[in-house]
Amino acid sequence: MQNIVPLKCPKCNNTSLFYKYGKTKDGYQKYLCRKCHHQFAPDKPSSKKTPKYPRCPVCGKASFLHHDYEYYSNYRCCDKKCNHSFFVPKPTAIPSTSMSKLVGKTNFKRMRYPVHIILSALSMFFLGKNSFRNISLILKTTFNVEVSHTTISNWCRKFAPLFHNISLELIPMLNFNSDEWHVDKTVVKIAGEKYYIWFVIDSETRFILGFHLTPYRDSRQAFALLNSVRNLGTPSAIVSDRYSAYKVPVKSLFGYSVKHIRVESFKNDISNNLIESFHHQFKAWYKAKQGFASFELANNLISMFVFFYNFVRPHSSLNGWTPAQVAGLNLTPKEKKKYLLVA
Fold first, then answer.
1. Is the pLDDT of residue 268 over 70?
2. For a designed S-S bond to 14, which of 9, 54, 70, 89 qualifies (C-beta 3.0 to 4.6 A apart)?
3. Which residues, by range, are in coiled-coil regions (predicted)?
4. CA–CA separation, 323 and 204 (whole Å)
């Protein structure tokens, strides 16, 4: 018996001639099209499975797994005419950076000295080349407050998590969608051993987006660094030297929409001089400290240096602004006190 219902055959687009044709094993009503004899159950949820592998970003067709690696997978388009090869990262397999492993205090509770004395000592250490003994002398002369140089050393180390949490609160207010991000590494000594410190800096704001301290320099470390900053913004290009460890991380984490520029010194119009200039400033501060005694101490001190560089120190190349202000940070005096950006 014909049943007139608001249906449409998915095969021939018939909208009027149907028979009821029993039910599926799940209890959904089936219909039979009288024109093309196609059977269908319109109320049954779609059983289409999500594809196992991602679609080709060039032609949109299916792909297959070409090679599987520890931190990423290499897929290739099934269409032989396209034959496009692309990389997909494995976020859960990529290691975390050293800047996420800070150890210390997250507040100023149970401190013997006022907050403004602590902030003054930290500013003198991270914005200049003062030693702990010189800072102790300055505090005695200026504020008539006697503070041991050992206490000042502990302040510079233990408050790294506090200032890192402040930067995490402020970074969502900033804009890092710029022309270029520059990435490079330099060498530091920890207890006499060679370590590598990796930095990513935004070309327009001079903001240090992230760092990673490690005893190795390989693709794993480049993956960790770039994965930690990939959600902060979208640059047009990432500039690096010709070290091969950057190639796959940039392609897999940022895709082909972000250009990877591998420069060669004195031979390219685009150079990596911006981050090399930052390395000179970092090394000037680092050499005054005569190396670091431990990995934990080095990681905490570098984190504090990056915070003061981004949010506190005015730059002459930025017309006396801080990189955070150039990136769009505009706080009231009350908010600055809340975030400890003024003493």
1. no
2. 9
3. none
4. 9
Closest CA to 302 of 196, 169, 144: 196
Instruction: Say if CB 213 and CB 295 are below 8 A apart.
Output: yes
**Are the C-beta atoms of residues 255 and 238 closer than 8 Å to each other?**
no
Q: Is residue 47 over pLDDT 70?
A: no
Residues 124 and 153: their CA atoms lie apart, in Å, by 12
Q: Return the pLDDT at 197.
A: 94
Which domains does the chain show, CATH number per domain? 1-47 (2.20.25), 49-93 (no CATH), 176-330 (3.30.420.10)
* pLDDT for res 17: 84
Q: Using an 8 Å Cβ cutoff, are 223 and 217 in contact?
A: no
Looking at residue 24, what DSSP letter applies? Answer: -
- Pure H helices in 171-294: 219-229, 247-254, 273-288
Structure-token pair, residue 287: 């050499």
Q: What is the pTM of this model?
A: 0.80
